[in-house]
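hey so u asked for the seq, here:
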Amino acid sequence: MLVVTLVGLGLFFWRYKELPSPEKESKILSREFMTVTGAMMLLILGLVIILGTSSPIIGRLFVENPTPPEISFYNTWS
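ran it, structure tokens below
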């Protein structure tokens, strides 16, 4: 893995000057920005749902009889 990483970084820096640079900054209300923002929101909410769903399993590491989160946990985040 280290060799692949070093080769990749070496090629990146070797051809860095040949990479095209963006002509202008993208607008905050652009389609691309909103798409990335929506994807990040879905990722964050998905992680919250996974954390809440697997909390009884994770809780067994610390407590003998863990309880699942209540419905209000999910309603708070979404």
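The chain is about 60% helix and 0% strand. The mean pLDDT is 86.
lmk if thats what u needed
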